[in-house]
Design brief:
The chain is of the alpha+beta class. It is built from 5 helices and 4 strands; from the N terminus they run αααββααββ. The chain starts with 10 loop residues before the first helix and ends with a strand.
């Protein structure tokens, strides 16, 4: 028997619903202009979003992030900032492993953007097609915080976690 829709939406649910709508729209628009591989477009959008978020935190809330020199240090500093600013609930929502100095494996547990990715998979896309807002913003943070240009890829998507990597280009 199908689950009945909820009759009330909390403010928190409304915020996540709005995020899901905008991320779906961003992804669909990127595909409209870039075919089935809109990653370059989305990666650039994630750079703008990450830089703007960090500027707002620095300018309006005195929450700044210090420059870093490695991929993993930049990601961990970004997560520290995200926890302090309320974007992330806990460091334990993520796992990072420096595979080499130029490649870091990322795992995201319980991602709030999971439904956006699920929408894409349900419409026929594969895991390798996902542009992943979370890992994409980690990659953008590496570029901004450490000045290291990287690529990223999603390698696994499940109900429990998303996995991928960030790698220097």
């Amino acid at each position: 028997m199908p689950e009945h829709p909820k009759s009330e939406i909390t403010k928190e649910e409304a915020g996540w619903l709005l995020s899901r709508v905008w991320l779906d729209a961003l992804e669909e628009t990127a595909r409209d202009f870039h075919g089935n591989w809109p990653k370059m477009f989305c990666a650039r959008a994630y750079e703008h979003a990450t830089d703007t978020w960090m500027k707002i935190l620095a300018n309006e809330y005195d929450l700044e992030i210090q420059p870093e020199t490695t991929i993993i240090d930049a990601i961990e500093s970004y997560v520290n900032l995200g926890v302090r600013a309320g974007l992330f609930t806990s460091h334990s929502d993520f796992k990072f492993d420096a595979l080499t100095p130029n490649k870091t494996a990322t795992t995201v547990f319980g991602c709030p953007y999971r439904k956006t990715c699920m929408d894409l998979i349900d419409s026929g896309f594969s895991v390798s097609d996902l542009t992943c807002p979370r890992i994409g913003c980690f990659r953008a943070a590496v570029k901004s915080v450490a000045g290291i240009d990287c690529d990223y890829e999603v390698t696994r998507f499940s109900a429990d976690a998303c996995e991928g990597f960030i790698e220097r280009v």
